[in-house]
Structure formats: C-alpha cells, structure tokens
C-alpha cells in the first residue's frame, strides 16, 4: 500500500476492497489481503498478534471455569488459586494496553485505520473498554481485604465472564475461514456451549446449597443436604461432582429423582433451568441437523437424479446400453463436481471467467493440431468462452451421420474413433489421446459426422462450437487453421481411406479431395501460409451450395406450403449478413435494414440458417 510523500499516518482503504466489499472478518481467510500498517501500530492480522490472542483464549477458558466455581464454593478460593487469578488478570491488563496500538477495520467506511489518535479515541469511546477494565480489576483480592465488612465484591468477580466474547469472535472468524472445516468448527462450538451451560448451572445450584440459611437444620433442607450429611465438611470436588451430575441429568431430561429441588428457591431455579434447556436443546439439534443435511445435500441430489434417469429409461423402454450411458453420465456430473464448477464459473464476472478459462485451456488449445501456429489473440478468443465436459467410459461423444455444431478437444483421457458399416457393425479406425480433436470435420465442412467417437475411459474435453470457429474465418490466422485442417485430412485419408467409405464420400462431395491434392506439395509452415494456401483455402463457414429464398415482403397468409411457394428470389447464401443485405439490394433495388424469418424472428448471423430457408428483408 503506497503512501503519499509527506503524509501523516491515516486511514487507508483495504487493497482490492471497496464500498460494499469484503468484510474485515473475512480477511484472515485471505492472507494476501492483509494490509500493511505504520510503524506505531500493530497489524491485527499479523501472525504474532494472532498467537497472542490465541494464548488469551486459553486464559479466557480458565476464567470461565474459575469465576462461577470460586463464587459457589468459597472455600475453594485458596491462596494458590487466587494467585493464578491475579496473574491471569495481569495478562488481560497488558492486552488492554496493547489495544491502544492495534489498527482496526472501519466497517462503516470500509477503511483500515492505523492512526494512533483515532485508534485511542475509538477504543475509549467503545463500551467494551469499560467492560475490559471492569473484568480485569482483581475483585477477589479486594474481597479478601474487606472480608467481614462487605460481601458485594465477591459477586463482581463474575465480570470476568465478559471475556467470553473473545471466544465468540474467534468462532465467528473460524467459521468464515476456509482453512478450517466448517462442520468440526461448529461441532466444537456446540460442545463448548453445552459444557459452559452445565458448569454454570452446577455452580449456581451448588451456591444455593451452601448459602441457604445459617443453621444445621436449614442446611439440610437443600438438595445437597438431604443427600449428603455434613456436606460442608466434605471435599470440594465431591460437592462439585454431585452438582455436575444433577446438571447433566436435568439437561438430558433423564430426571432420575435421586437429586431434586427441596426448598422454593431451588424449585424456581430448577424451573428456569429446564426452560433454558428446552431452548438449548432445540439450538443444538437444529444446528446438528443443518450440518448433517448440508453435508448430504449433494448425495440427495445425485440419488434423485439417478432415480429420475432410471424411471425415464424404464417408462420409455430404452435399450440397456443407453440406460447405462445415461446413468453413468448423471453420476459423473456429481462425482466430478461438474455442476458445481459450472455454477461457480457462471457466477463470476466475465473478465474473471475468461482468465480462468485461459489458465485452464490455453495449453490444450495451443497443442491441438488445428490451432498450431495461430496467434495468441485467436487462442484468447477461443478459450474465453470454452466449457469443460466430462464423459464416462464407453460414452458416445460424436455420432456418425449426425449433424453437429460442436466439436471437442480432449484434455485428459482417451477416445476411440469408430466407423459403422451398413450392417451396423462397428470398426475401430484410430484412437485419440490428450490434445486430440473429435467431431471437427463435420462442424468445419458443415456435413454429417463421418465417424463415431466414443470415450474409452473417463475423459475430460472442452467444447468448441461453430460460432467459436467462425471467429477465425476473417482473420489472418484463417489460412493457418485451414492448412492444418487440410494436412490432417490428408494424413487421415492415407490412414483410413480403405476402412471408412463414408469419409471418402464426404471428401468427394465437399471437393476436399481436390484441395488435398492441390495442397499436397505445399509447405504448411507458419511463415509460408499466405504463399502456399490460396484464397479459396480459407476456413469454410459452412457447406458450399447453401441456398435461401429472399422476399421483399412477408408472404401472403395461408398454409406453410402456400407461404413457401410465394414469390421470392433464390440466392446462394453468402458468408455474412452484410453481404446478404447487399445481394438483396442488388435484387430488389432497396437497402435492407434487417433480415427476418417468415415467422418474424430476426436473424443475427447467417450461421443459424439452413438450406432452403425463406427470409424476409425489412427496408
């Protein structure tokens, strides 16, 4: 964090955090966001200060146990225990002095304040300062000095319970820290709350037994005196054990009846304690149920998806192999976290999502044969909108004779390229490994797929749509991409020509055989693309010979067949919407502004049109 030259230490905005940004409580989970402070201030997120706060948490737990225990059993407050209490108070007094140097996060302005004057003023103005001081004053020593004249000081010792707010803040921070398991953090917190409730209620009930009346008969008229004779002379730990036993049985709603309230005061306290137990038990059960259900949410979703897929296959009487593929695909989406990944990426800003895709898929695209030698700009455009898909073993990625607008680059795994004969038998043509492509021939040539591609094991692939490929149709990289594609077809033709008649037929229909022969002796180096690849060797946008019918107005009303026969002009579909408008202007003598289908849908890209479509020009 840079400071202005000559400027005094002041409030600084957290790096990367503006108004409405990350709360200060989240900073410990992201160490790189921890801001720097001046020389006269202490960074609250510094490791040394965190260790100091952790040491104080241990002393807080001791105070939470000793304060009610010493109040309930006055004879337990021996000299060694009082000395330990005094030492603990000294540590908290030191922490109060340190607090005047600790920078803080101003949530109202989202600023990190490290100015000593502002730190002091803010700390003194907070109610927590008065409570920190009051909880540090050694009232147990003062009580010993004035013993016999006033007993009010011994109850002020309970102010040390204020220190428990440090534990509450600690758990609030740990629950937001992704380095710690949320389930176990909440579990430890619930156990701590339960133990504190048991200890406090046991001490209160024990205090009522020792401070009921002053005679022997009065002492026996208590829950402890009715069970233990001369309990005042017994060991402190014996009495405490009885109290904890009664507290646990009451909290657990067991109620054996061996220890029970005797006088009205104990009955009132027992009633209040049981009402408190209802709320505490509900709180614990609710939290535990939420934790268990949250952990099993994905399992429930997966089981529901599998059940629906199984029901769908049974109702529609799908073949067993198709059911297995559907079941494996549904289970794979949850086991690989694909659903969570897609949701996570969709929630990110566009720029950040593009950077993530660039990090994940750039190397895969650059090592793919089709994009070797292209510019870095084209690679960035391609990977910015890519999405990853997972295929289980023996899952069909591309089907033969099916027209598709998507092709795939394999990131990991492997796939088999198969050709299907007329009798339905399949024959292995070749295998595809990482960085190989599947389905690109059908997409680039605009024809049905010549092969079936089936994953041989768990495979991850990135999808490239036709719109992605069209991004390089009018760029300097088009010749490079097309040259790579022709060279691949040449090597593939030499390898599988005898085993794939459909592949030969597609090459003949698309005139690719002639282009392969023309480019056979050409060098496909990146520096010679413009010289060796003629202008017709640009990346084809679609199959040659695509025709559409253009109209200067909407066809007359009637049936769809009558509307299709309405007057119009049959033209070859050009490569862009602008060129189509120029063709319409030449045919009708008017400049078109928009292109619509006969159903009234506006056309934004010629890539979505099919052979024989009827289009209406709006002037």
List keywords for this structure.
4-stranded antiparallel beta sheet, alpha+beta, 619 residues
Provide structural commentary.
This protein has 619 residues and is of the alpha+beta class. It is 50% helix and 11% strand. The protein is built from 24 helices and 15 strands. The strands form 4 sheets. Strands 4-11-6-9 form a 4-stranded antiparallel β-sheet. Strands 5-10-7-8 form a 4-stranded antiparallel β-sheet, with no helix packed on it. A 4-stranded mixed β-sheet has the order 13-12-15-14, with helices on one face. A hairpin with a 5-residue loop joins strand 7 and strand 8 (426-432).
Terminal CA distance reads 58 Å
By secondary-structure content and strand pairing, the structural class works out as: alpha+beta
Q: Specify Rg, calculated over alpha carbons.
A: 39 Å
With strands numbered from the N-terminus, the spatial order across the biggest sheet is: 4-11-6-9
Question: Mean pLDDT score, rounded?
Answer: 77
């Amino acid at each position: 964090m840079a400071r202005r030259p000559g400027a005094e230490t002041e409030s600084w905005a957290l790096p990367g955090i503006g108004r409405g940004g990350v709360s200060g409580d989240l900073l410990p989970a992201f160490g790189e966001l921890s801001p720097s402070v001046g020389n006269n201030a202490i960074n609250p997120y510094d490791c040394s200060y965190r260790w100091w706060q952790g040491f104080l948490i241990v002393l807080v737990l001791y105070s939470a146990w000793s304060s009610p225990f010493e109040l309930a059993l006055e004879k337990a407050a021996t000299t060694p225990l009082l000395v330990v209490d005094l030492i603990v108070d000294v540590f908290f007094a030191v922490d109060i002095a340190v607090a005047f140097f600790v920078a803080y996060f101003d949530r109202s302005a989202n600023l990190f304040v490290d100015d000593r004057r502002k730190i002091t003023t803010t700390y003194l103005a907070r109610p927590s300062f008065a409570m920190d001081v009051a909880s540090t004053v050694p009232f147990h020593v003062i009580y010993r000095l004035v013993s016999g004249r006033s007993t009010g000081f011994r109850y002020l010792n309970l102010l040390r319970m204020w220190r428990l707010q440090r534990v509450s803040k600690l758990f609030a921070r740990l629950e937001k820290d992704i380095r710690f398991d949320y389930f176990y953090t909440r579990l430890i917190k619930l156990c701590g709350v339960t133990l504190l409730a048991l200890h406090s209620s046991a001490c209160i009930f024990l205090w009522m037994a020792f401070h009921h009346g002053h005679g022997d008969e009065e002492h026996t008229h208590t829950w402890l005196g009715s069970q233990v004779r001369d309990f005042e002379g017994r060991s402190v730990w014996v009495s405490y054990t009885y109290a904890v036993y009664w507290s646990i049985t009451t909290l657990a709603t067991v109620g054996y009846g061996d220890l029970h309230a005797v006088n009205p005061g104990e009955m009132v306290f027992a009633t209040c304690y049981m009402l408190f137990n209802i709320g505490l038990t509900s709180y614990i059960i609710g939290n535990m149920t939420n934790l268990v259900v949250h952990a099993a949410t994905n399992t429930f979703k997966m089981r529901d998806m599998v059940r629906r897929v199984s029901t769908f296959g049974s109702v529609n009487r799908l073949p067993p192999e198709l059911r297995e593929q559907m079941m494996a695909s549904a289970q794979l989406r949850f086991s690989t976290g694909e659903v969570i990944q897609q949701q996570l990426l969709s929630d990110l800003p566009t720029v950040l999502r593009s950077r993530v895709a660039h990090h994940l898929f750039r190397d895969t695209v650059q090592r793919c044969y089709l994009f070797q030698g292209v510019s870095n700009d084209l690679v960035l455009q391609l990977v910015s909108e890519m999405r990853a898909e997972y295929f289980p073993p023996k899952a069909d990625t591309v089907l033969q004779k099916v027209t598709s607008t998507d092709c795939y680059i394999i990131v990991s795994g492997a796939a088999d390229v198969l050709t299907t004969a007329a009798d339905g038998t399949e024959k292995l043509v070749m295998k595809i490994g990482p960085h190989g492509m599947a389905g690109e021939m059908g997409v680039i040539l605009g024809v049905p797929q010549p092969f079936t591609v089936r994953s041989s094991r768990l495979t991850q692939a990135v999808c490239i749509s036709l719109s992605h490929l069209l991004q390089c149709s009018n760029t300097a990289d088009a010749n490079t991409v097309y040259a790579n594609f022709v060279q691949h077809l040449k090597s593939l033709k030499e390898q599988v020509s005898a085993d794939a008649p459909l592949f030969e037929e597609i090459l003949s229909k698309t005139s690719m055989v002639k282009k392969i022969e023309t480019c056979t002796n050409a060098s496909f180096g990146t520096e010679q693309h413009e010289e060796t690849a003629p202008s017709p060797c640009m990346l084809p946008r679609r199959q040659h010979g695509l025709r559409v019918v253009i109209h200067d107005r909407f066809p007359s009303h009637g049936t769809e067949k009558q509307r299709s026969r309405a007057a119009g002009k049959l033209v070859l579909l050009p490569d862009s919407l602008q060129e189509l408008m120029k063709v319409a202007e030449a045919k009708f003598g008017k400049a078109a502004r928009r292109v619509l289908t006969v159903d009234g849908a506006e056309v934004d890209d010629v890539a979505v049109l099919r052979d024989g479509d009827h289009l209406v020009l709006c002037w």
